[in-house]
Write a structure and sequence with these properties.
The protein has two domains: 150 residues, Rossmann fold, CATH 3.40.50.720; 160 residues, Alpha-Beta Complex (L-2-Hydroxyisocaproate Dehydrogenase, Chain A, domain 2). Helices cover 43% and strands 19% of the residues. The strands form three sheets. It has a nine-stranded mixed sheet, sandwiched between helices. The structure holds 1,4-dihydronicotinamide adenine dinucleotide (NAI).
Length: 328
C-alpha cells in the first residue's frame, strides 16, 4: 500500500461536500491503492455540522481513509496537501450584485491561494469547483506565484458530462461509446458545448444529429442544466457536481483514455486565441498528473464566435477582480 496523500477539501459541510468526501474516501478519485488523509476546511459556524459528516465518514469504515481532520484555519487545512479541492464559496445572496460576489470570493480565494503556497506539498494540484470557478482559480493562482500555473484548474467537467449525457440520450448510444466531447470557455451560461469533433460509437456525431437540434436543444440544455436542476429539485446540483469533481481529478492523475480527451479549465497560453493567463475550458489529454491542450482542432465559425463571447466574459471578470486588487 502506498503512503497516504493529503486531500484538502473546502466547504465540506455543504451539499457538494456531503457527496464528494465519501467518494474520495472510497478511492474513486485517486484509485483503489491510494490511501487518503482528508483535511476539511470550513467557516467556524459550519464546524459543528461538519462533525456530523466526520462521524459518517468514520462510520463508513473506508479501508483507504487514513484520517480525517477539520479546521477553520487555511494554513492547517493545506499543510502538506497533494490536492486541494476548493469547493466552498460565497453564494450569491439576495440583492447581491455580481461585483459583490466577485469581491467576496476574491477575498476567500486569494487567502486560500496564499495558504496553499505557504503550506501545501511541492506537487500540489488545485481544482476549483466553487463559483465563479474560472475566475476563482485565476485569483488563487495569482496569490500563489511560486506554484506553477499548470497546477491550477477549474471544473468544467460537469458541463462536459452533461453534454455527453445529452448526446447519448439523443443517439441511443451508451455514454461509454461517446468520445471527444468539448466544452470551451467559462463555466457559466456563455460556455460553449461543442460536439463537432465528437465520436458516437464509430460515427461522427455530426452525421447523426441535426444542426437545428445542436443549436436549439443540445447547447442550451447543457448550458442551462444547473438552473433546470434547481427548478426541479429545489436545490442546486450537488451529486453530479461532486461526481464531476472526482472525474476531473481522476482524469488529471490517472490519464485520459487513448483516442479520447476531456474538458478542463486551465490557464491559457494563447491557445485558440484565448488570451494568455485566462482560465478557460479546453479539450485536454492528461497523463500522470500533467495535461496538454489538444491543438490543431478546426473550430466551426459558430463555435469560434461563441468562444469569443465566453472569453469576453472571462476577460470582464478578470478586469473586475484586477480592479479589486486581487491579481496583484
Ligand atoms: P453549499 O452552500 O451547500 O456549501 C458551500 C459550503 O462552503 C458551506 O458549507 C460554507 O460554509 C462553505 N464555505 C463558504 N465559505 C468558505 C470558506 N471561506 N472556507 C471554507 N468553506 C467555506 O454549496 P454547494 O452546493 O456545496 O456548492 C459549492 C460551490 O460549488 C458553489 O459555489 C456552487 O456554485 C459551485 N458549483 C460549481 C459547479 C461547477 O460545475 N463548477 C457545479 C455546482 C456547484
Amino acid at each position: 500500500m502506498r503512503a497516504p496523500i493529503t486531500v484538502a477539501v473546502t466547504g465540506g459541510a455543504g451539499q457538494i461536500g456531503y457527496q464528494l468526501l465519501f467518494r474520495i474516501a472510497a478511492g474513486d478519485m485517486l484509485g483503489p491503492d491510494q490511501p487518503v488523509r482528508l483535511r476539511i476546511l470550513e467557516i467556524p459556524d459550519a464546524l459543528p455540522a461538519l462533525e456530523g459528516v466526520v462521524m459518517e465518514l468514520h462510520d463508513s469504515a473506508f479501508p483507504l481513509l487514513h484520517s480525517v481532520d477539520t479546521t477553520a484555519d487555511a494554513s492547517v487545512a493545506f499543510e502538506g496537501a497533494g490536492h486541494a479541492l476548493l469547493v466552498g464559496a460565497r453564494p450569491r445572496g439576495p440583492g447581491m450584485e455580481r461585483s459583490d460576489l466577485l469581491a467576496a470570493n476574491g477575498a476567500i480565494f486569494s487567502a486560500q491561494g496564499r495558504a496553499i503556497q505557504e503550506h501545501a506539498s511541492q506537487d500540489i494540484r488545485i481544482t476549483v469547483t466553487g463559483n465563479p470557478a474560472n475566475t476563482n482559480a485565476l485569483i488563487a493562482a495569482a496569490a500563489a506565484p511560486d506554484i506553477p500555473r499548470e497546477r491550477f484548474s477549474a471544473l468544467t467537467r460537469l458541463d462536459h458530462n452533461r453534454a455527453i449525457a445529452q448526446l447519448a440520450a439523443r443517439t441511443g448510444e451508451p455514454v461509454a461509446g461517446i468520445r471527444r466531447m468539448i466544452v470551451w470557455g467559462n463555466h457559466s451560461t456563455t460556455q460553449v458545448p461543442d460536439l463537432t469533433h465528437a465520436i458516437v460509437g464509430e460515427s461522427l456525431a455530426t452525421d447523426l444529429v441535426e444542426r437545428e437540434w445542436v443549436r436549439d436543444e443540445f447547447a442550451p440544455t447543457v448550458a442551462n442544466r444547473g438552473a433546470a436542476v434547481i427548478a426541479a429539485r429545489g436545490a442546486s446540483s450537488a451529486a453530479s457536481a461532486a461526481s464531476a469533481t472526482i472525474d476531473h481529478v481522476r482524469s488529471w492523475m490517472l490519464g485520459t483514455a487513448p483516442d479520447d480527451w476531456t474538458s478542463m479549465s486551465v490557464i491559457s497560453r494563447g491557445e485558440y486565441d484565448v488570451p494568455e493567463g485566462l482560465v478557460s475550458s479546453f479539450p485536454v489529454t492528461t497523463a500522470e498528473g500533467e495535461w496538454s491542450i489538444v491543438d490543431d482542432l478546426e473550430l466551426e465559425p459558430e463555435v469560434a464566435e461563441q468562444l469569443r463571447a465566453s472569453v469576453a466574459e472571462l476577460e470582464q471578470e478578470r478586469e473586475q477582480v484586477r480592479a479589486l486588487g486581487y491579481l496583484g
